[in-house]
Design a protein that fits this description.
182 residues; mainly alpha; elongated
Length: 182
């Protein structure tokens, strides 16, 4: 049984992200390698690790701020809760004389909305282990690709057919011309 292309993409995504991150550090790694006479592969791995540490720091900071905001919402320390509460009270007063069929429709809508939120939360929690596994695979793949980037690049170039190389060169030329015109 073959996997559909979408799930194949999900399995390859950590390697694609790892390759992109590795490519971003190649020029700085080459420069540092020439100045310090440390092997380029080791410089690239160190830069990839630094890049991930910065990324993890930024994500942690954002998660902390989001958690702090959610805590303030949950404890009622936020002005948003009081404004939402007053809005709901006013809305309920305006719907007091509403016909029963509209009231039932509104209740069904709200129950459906709560169900959607609950399903989203369940899917998010179920997806966390795969997310952490994919993140770990991405980091490890980035380090391996960074260490042997030059050999990796040579092996990819030997696999790609000549007509695709020419197409890639033409696309690069068109891209550069369009960027220059902007």
């Amino acid at each position: 049984m073959t996997a559909p292309p979408q799930s194949l993409f999900l399995y390859l995504l950590p390697f694609i992200i790892g390759l992109i991150i590795t490519v971003t550090v190649q020029k700085p790694a080459d420069y540092i390698s020439k100045k310090t006479r440390i092997r380029k592969g080791y410089c690239a791995v160190a830069l990839v690790v630094i890049e991930y540490l910065i990324l993890i720091g930024l994500i942690s900071l954002l998660a902390f701020e989001a958690g702090n905001y959610i805590y303030q919402l949950a404890t009622g320390e936020s002005e948003l809760i009081s404004s939402i509460g007053s809005f709901v009270d006013k809305a309920l007063l305006s719907f007091e004389n509403m016909p029963e069929y509209l009231s039932n429709s509104l209740k069904n809508f709200l129950n459906g909305f709560v169900g959607i939120i609950t399903d989203f939360a369940k899917q998010t929690i179920k997806g966390l282990p795969m997310f952490f596994t994919s993140t770990l695979v991405t980091i490890v793949a980035s380090c391996y690709i960074a260490k042997d980037y030059d050999r990796f690049k040579v092996s990819i170039k030997s696999v790609v057919a000549e007509k695709y190389k020419l197409a890639a060169k033409e696309i690069k030329i068109l891209f550069n011309e369009n960027i220059k015109s902007i």
